[in-house]
Design goal:
Length: about 475
């Protein structure tokens, strides 16, 4: 086997470093000591349903479907992705197991078992070829329990057993089919962090088990090269919500339909409703989906309370950027308005630090102009202690109280990791280049001596000879 890729969903660079240094992941540590270990930057927003399509295709989100510009809750169907993946470009015999966002599998030279995210259920056709399902029956039977746990008492053990079984399936497929390229994606690492982030003991326990399983599969199949990576980092669940539309209204970019008194009353109601919405993120996801559904035009007119004849900017679809209303501006005014907004947003500071860790224009981030398109005009990476929320309420910043059992989140955690080791890996100074998740596809393709098509956004990382 030329290359084995192991994805560890949501393992941050910082956490990977800690687990290796503290002896919790000795197998990963051994690989790191002979290879290259560095930060791998995720997309904005840093969620799996946006980051993984970029990983598979080497394309930035604007070239993927409009779905990838929305929030993670929107399903990204693999068939609708409609772009070639790196294993399809490579064309070598491949084994792709448990990779999220690959339901429903499409024909290619190899075998696929779609990952947990967006595979509807154990009963669905999640394998290619279809007949492969007979020999892997039960692969997704824990999906419901892991994604929506009723209680957490046995959660960790279910996750560990589930991972063990899945990696064993992967190992068996490798020994039967001897592919040139193999990929296993661990989704449970993401779920365990969502539900147990503050319990260091549980986290250590899970990663210790995962490290052992990875060590075993590596030992057994002896790939010439191995590449480990994650699609985003992780942080604690946010403590605050920030109403960006409220701030935009204060600064005169957004206007409500009514006079001051009615507007005040409306904001009070919204404030009350927001308590319910933040307590039940499932409601928040429905509200968000509703506002997104209305947004097929460049500037979504989704809030009934907003006077769109006077509104220049609002929180974007997906709640992670700013949309500027191109109908209100001439093209030559656009740059100045956006620069002013960026300057004001940069000055916002709470809890002793800047509210936005990163602020980007779409030109700087993706080399694409946003004026008059569905793309957000400004991309924001918020302090992970805070979550942006749609609507206009009376308090700009409010405490966040979730009734779900979640402990961790990663909406603004871009710092994933990558680790490469093997015969073709150069021992490059880790500081000498920066790596993004979009770079992985072209890097793998170049390893298989493919010419990289010009349409691909990612660059070839100097990690392989
Ligand atoms: Zn993820």
């Amino acid at each position: 086997m030329k290359l084995m890729i192991i994805g560890i969903d949501g393992l941050s660079f910082q956490m990977a470093n800690r687990l290796m240094k503290n002896g919790i992941c000795p197998n990963l540590n051994a690989l790191m000591s002979q290879g290259t270990f560095k930060t791998l930057l995720s997309t904005i927003p840093s969620v799996t349903s946006v980051a993984l399509p970029s990983f598979m295709t080497g394309l930035y989100p604007p070239k993927l479907s409009e779905n990838s510009l929305k929030k993670s809750s929107r399903l990204l169907n693999f068939a609708a992705l409609n772009k070639k993946t790196f294993w399809e470009y490579c064309g070598v015999l491949s084994c792709i197991v448990n990779l999220r966002c690959t339901y429903r599998p499409r024909p290619f030279n190899g075998l696929m078992i779609s990952g947990d995210l967006y595979t509807p259920s154990e009963n669905s056709g999640y394998t290619f070829p279809r007949k492969l399902k007979h020999s892997v029956k039960g692969f997704h039977e824990n999906m419901e329990r892991l994604h929506r746990p009723r209680d957490k008492s046995n959660y960790l053990q279910i996750a560990i057993d589930d991972t063990k079984r899945k990696i064993n399936v992967f190992r068996n497929l490798l020994s039967i089919h001897s592919p040139d390229l193999a990929l296993y994606w661990d989704g449970n690492s993401d779920l365990v962090q969502h539900y147990c982030f503050s319990e260091a003991k549980s986290i250590n326990h899970y990663f210790m088990a995962l490290d052992r399983l990875i060590g075993r599969v590596y030992e057994k199949s002896q790939p010439e090269n191995i590449l480990l990576l994650s699609d985003h980092g992780f942080d604690k669940e946010p403590e605050y919500t920030f109403y960006l539309n409220n701030w935009l209204e204060k600064k005169g970019y957004l206007h409500l339909k009514w006079g001051p008194l009615r507007a005040k009353f409306y904001k009070m109601i919204m404030q009350l409703l927001s308590k319910i919405v933040t307590a039940h993120p499932s409601i928040s996801r429905v509200v968000q989906a509703k506002t997104e559904a209305k947004g097929s035009s460049c500037f979504a007119k989704s809030y009934p309370s907003v006077d769109y004849r006077r509104t220049v900017a609002q929180l974007s679809r997906g709640w992670w950027g700013v949309d500027i209303n191109s109908e209100m501006l001439q093209e030559d005014e656009y740059g100045a308005v956006r620069n002013k907004l960026i300057e004001q947003l940069s000055g916002l500071s709470y809890f002793g630090s800047r509210l936005f860790r990163e602020i980007w224009t779409s030109e700087d981030l993706y080399g694409v102009r946003a004026f008059g398109t569905v793309l957000p005009d400004i991309y924001l990476v918020t302090d992970p202690r805070c979550k942006l929320l749609g609507g206009v309420a009376s308090n700009m910043l409010t405490g966040f109280r979730s009734k779900e059992k979640r402990e961790g989140d990663h909406y603004n955690s871009r710092q994933g990791f990558m680790l490469a080791q093997g015969e073709d890996v150069v021992s490059e100074n880790p500081e000498s280049f920066s790596a993004e998740i979009v770079d992985i596809a072209p890097t793998v393709m170049s390893m298989f001596s493919l010419k990289i098509p010009r349409s691909i956004d990612g660059k070839v990382l100097p990690i392989f000879e």
